[in-house]
Write a structure and sequence with these properties.
Layout (H helix, E strand, L loop, with lengths): L1 E3 L2 E3 L24 H73 L1 H72 L6 H53 L4 H25 L4 H4 L2 H16 L2 E7 L7 H22 L3 E8 L3 E8 L6 H4 L6 H10 L3 E6 L5 E8 L11
Parallel strand pairs: 3-4
Antiparallel strand pairs: 1-2, 4-5, 5-7, 6-7
Helix pairs in contact: 1-2, 2-3, 3-4, 6-7
Length: 412
């Protein structure tokens, strides 16, 4: 496994051609035994574990650097506040000194040359001190802005590193939990490899999509923020009257950037899906969906709430996420119902809204994400039925086996 620019590439995996004879690509050396395939899996797992350790070390170093930057930023902010207060006091003193100098100058005969000289020197000293502290204030402001920008970049690096650690851990879980359970029939194992490989490839495509979203959205806005921050530091001395408008623009841009980042974070799988399981994650997700988008989701859980295979939990969560996104974007309603039923050999999932509905044939490929849902259901070995028509709402009925590769009858 190779790590390039924070992404996982599967070119180095020894089983990248695991589609086997059916896909037109043969296994290295024409592998014909499950034992040989198991050895390949073990080597892949070892490579993934080494990569995870390397990423973890990078994340730890990034966290240490983040702590150092935060401490330095706190110190610079303190110095900047002191300098700004000092400038305010010096401005007041300088104003008083100039006023006194003008008074002495207007009544020179009464005050005399000595007092005139003293007043002049005092005014001059105030001006020099004020200039020095204004320069220090400007330098500290620039240093503070640079540190804030560096800290944000470092925090993003930490987040990406932690995300990579999590993703590699998920890949390890898939390999050790599914691929390592090698059966006696090579055809069955090859098919399982193909399924897992497609899931991992889908994860890589998702990372690429997120990278594009971050590059086209928050990354571009951050560049704009850095530019406007630098402009503001220049306007302080050159055109202070324009500073307020630029600061307002900077604030709006930062707010928009924060909203985009939150939107991206919200679209990701919550960490509690790994920690607590599918049902707690769904309660949290549907609650946040109401807060962020105003769509009230009635979630009903039937049966024993047991942990499922990670791939199955992820698949069900993504199906519900995509379906609710469709309701929010297209249905024209502010509510939906989700029913999740745990049965001995399968999971029944029903998602329904009373919205505008749509023509199923026309909607295919028109931004409803139906092809993606069908593909995910297919990878999970399940079935998807869509009941909809214009003006009659939409109901999705899904049946998903509890275990990947289970081939029992899904009906009933």
């Amino acid at each position: 496994m190779l790590l390039i620019s924070g992404r996982v590439t599967w070119d180095a995996l020894p089983w990248r051609c695991l589609e086997g004879r059916r896909g037109g690509c043969s296994l290295p050396g024409e592998v014909k035994t499950a034992a040989t395939l198991e050895q390949i899996v073990k080597e892949t797992v070892r490579t993934l574990e080494q990569s995870r350790e390397a990423i973890y070390n990078i994340a730890e170093t990034a966290r240490q650097e983040e702590t150092r930057l935060r401490q330095e930023l706190d110190e610079v902010r303190r110095e900047f506040s002191e300098a700004a207060a000092r400038v305010d006091r010096l401005e007041a003193e300088e104003k008083r000194a100039r006023t006194h100098l003008m008074e002495v100058s207007r009544d020179f005969m009464r005050h005399g040359e000595k007092e005139m000289q003293t007043a002049y020197e005092r005014a001059r000293e105030c001006q020099v001190q004020l200039g020095l502290w204004r320069e220090r204030e400007t330098q500290l402001r620039q240093r503070r802005d640079r540190l804030e920008s560096n800290l944000k970049s470092q925090q993003e690096m930490v987040r990406r590193a932690e995300e990579l650690v999590t993703n590699v851990g998920a890949a390890l879980a898939l390999l050790t939990g599914e691929l390592a359970r090698v059966g006696s029939h090579l055809e069955e194992m090859e098919q399982r490899h193909v399924v897992v490989l497609k899931v991992l490839q889908a994860q890589e495509e998702e990372r690429q999509r997120l990278a594009r979203e971050i590059h086209d959205g928050p990354a571009q806005n951050m560049a704009g923020i850095a530019f406007k921050a630098e402009l503001c530091t220049r306007l302080v001395d050159i055109k202070p009257g324009e500073l307020k408008n630029e600061l307002l623009a900077l604030s709006n841009l930062a707010r928009d950037t924060l909203a985009e980042i939150r939107k991206i974070i919200f679209s990701l799988r919550p960490m509690m899906l790994d920690d607590l399981g599918l049902v707690p994650a769904l309660y949290r997700f549907t609650g946040e969906y109401l807060e962020r988008y105003g769509l009230e989701v009635e979630l009903t859980i039937i049966g024993n709430e047991e942990r499922l295979d990670k791939a199955v939990e992820i698949g069900i969560f993504r199906l519900i996420q995509e379906a609710l996104n469709n309701v929010w974007k297209h249905a024209g309603v502010n509510g939906a119902r989700v029913k999740l039923e745990f049965r001995p050999e399968k999971i029944n999932l029903n998602i329904k809204d009373e919205g505008c509905g749509f023509d199923l044939e026309t909607a295919r490929g028109a931004g409803y994400g139906l092809a993606g849902m069908q593909e995910r259901i297919k990878l999970l070995g399940g079935k998807l039925t869509i009941n909809t028509a214009p003006g009659r709402g939409t109901e999705l009925e899904m049946v998903i086996p509890r275990q990947l590769g289970w081939s029992g009858d899904l009906a009933g």
